[in-house]
Amino acid sequence: MSPRLPFFRLSALVFGFAFLYIPILSLIVYSFNKSRLVTVWGGFSTEWYVRLFSNEQILNAVWLSLKIAAVNATGAVILGTLAGLALTRMGGFRGRTLLSGMTTAPLVMPDVITGLSLLLLFVAMEQLLGWPQGRGVTTITIAHMTLTLAYVTVIVQSRLSTLDDSLEEAAMDLGARPATIFFVITLPIIAPALLAGWLLAFTISLDDLVIASFVSGPGSSTLPMVIFSKVRLGVSPDINALATIMVALVTLGVVIAGILMARREARRQRDIQMAAG
What we know:
Domain ABC transmembrane type-1: 62-260
CATH class of the domain at 55-233: Mainly Alpha
CATH topology of the domain at 55-233: MetI-like fold
Largest sheet: none
Distance between the termini: 41 Å
Strand content: under 5%
Order of helices and strands: HHHHHHHHHHH
Keywords: Cell membrane, Membrane, Transmembrane, Transmembrane helix, Transport
Radius of gyration: 23 Å
Membrane topology: Multi-pass membrane protein
Pfam family, one: BPD_transp_1
Family: Belongs to the binding-protein-dependent transport system permease family. CysTW subfamily.
């Protein structure tokens, strides 16, 4: 092995991590800045965290975004799982190509087009059916669900395509009903994929700015919309404090999800080995 190769790999690794995480680290450091100027260090202080928790506009936006993201992720997992099951288990039924294309189209559709089309749809539905009345939490949740169920469908479909059918066939031979097979065998096996899809849908909804801007109304500003409106007038240190808290929560959630998924996968592999033995 060439002696320069490890140095090259180490340099590439350091450069890659620095490129990705130095902006985040600088944001975290300046969230403890005493100065009102976000790029001028004036000493250590937690003043902006105290001010953040007394800012009702930001707190209301955080609570609204969390509610929308949770409802959206749950709905996207249900619809995405049904779509994934239909595409994987129902064979070549009529309309399969159309369903596959419609469920994956939001993956490649620009957010501006998706947001504009949903806005026109909601306006037309309000004129024809009287629902939804105006734009708000309901329209944002539906719009996010339209986008994120595509990601969940791809994840669930990928997991189901690699599922060992012999377990379900053995259960059927023993007289188990299809619903029992799904809830006792299939659902626990694909649970890590469902969890991954839920987390991805939750994160996408929490991060979305473009689509929410099209389908939101008065009194329904999400957190990204509030942050963007504040940044346009100049970055304030309390935004750094909010971003630091979000980074900490996301990191904690990713670590916990990773540990749970690793333990579940280890248990599944152990059960498979015991069944084979």
